[in-house]
Amino acid sequence: MPTQPVQTRTVRVPTADGRADAFAAFPDGGDRHPGVLMYADGFGIRPVLREMARELAGHGYYVLVPNYFYRHGPAPVIELPEYIGEEARPAVFAQVMPLIQAHTTERVLSDADAYLGFLAAQPEVAAGPVAVTGYCIGGLLAMRTAAAHPGQVAAVAVFHGPVSADGLAGLTAQVHLGHAEGDLTPEALGELNQALDAAGVAYTSEIYPGTVHGFTMSDTDSFNPAALQRHWDRLLPLLDRALAGGRGPGREATG
């Protein structure tokens, strides 16, 4: 996959409740590029998320990865092992779950306003719509953000995240849902897709074969390299279709 040289920086996003630290990655060269808001999984900003953001930025996007648990401190909010295997999971989840439970819908939507406003104000970000992508619990945040900003979010992609039919109201973005085989039965997938049809959403929604929850994350024992590649094969063409109008000079078309 051809990529461009990328700059990265840590930024602070003003919110109603303070300042959220975030990781930003964007192409070198001074051009303006479409914005992508990337919600991490519950384990938060860490090397694997920074690498994914850099990879996406190399295809011509300004990628913002916020620490959505910023109310509890800067990232890393909890101490993580380099590799999150079966033995480490119980202790990690014991720390993460209270943070997830405290992150109410009201907080999600308030923060989404701030993140999208920050993106729109960056000199490296092109005018026009943005995309939102999310992993695991970040997928729920992505869907809520897209539904709350129908005129601003043109694409939303969710990977191994909780998606339900009751979160589709107001959604106008193009959608891709990449489900883990361990998360969703074919029957449940059919019901969800029927709800997407009824909502009039333009979407692709599929179970990635042989996967369990968390399949994109290379620092966990859920990682599936083939499914990560499938994730890029779905995500890049979706963003190219939805955000092509915001392309700056020199951006490679993908898909």
Short descriptors:
alpha/beta, globular, Rossmann fold, disordered C terminus, 255 residues, 22% strand, 34% helix, 6 helices, 8-stranded mixed sheet
Structure description:
The protein is of the alpha/beta class. It has one domain: Alpha/Beta hydrolase fold, catalytic domain (Rossmann fold), CATH 3.40.50. The protein has an 8-stranded mixed sheet with strand order 1-2-4-3-5-6-7-8, sandwiched between helices. Strand 5, helix 4 and strand 6 form a beta-alpha-beta unit. Helix 3 crosses helix 4. It is globular, with a radius of gyration of 17 Å. The C terminus is likely disordered.
Number of domains: 1
Give the oligomeric state.
Answer: single chain
Our count of helices gives: 6
Global mean pLDDT:
93
Strand order across the biggest sheet? Answer: 1-2-4-3-5-6-7-8
What's this model, at a glance?
The chain has helices at 47-57, 89-102, 105-121, 137-148, 186-198, 225-243, and strands spanning 6-15, 18-27, 35-39, 62-66, 130-135, 153-159, 174-180, 203-208.
Blueprint (SSEs and pairs):
Layout: E1 6-15, E2 18-27, E3 35-39, H1 47-57, E4 62-66, H2 89-102, H3 105-121, E5 130-135, H4 137-148, E6 153-159, E7 174-180, H5 186-198, E8 203-208, H6 225-243
Parallel strand pairs: 3-4, 3-5, 5-6, 6-7, 7-8
Antiparallel strand pairs: 1-2, 2-4
Helix pairs in contact: 3-4
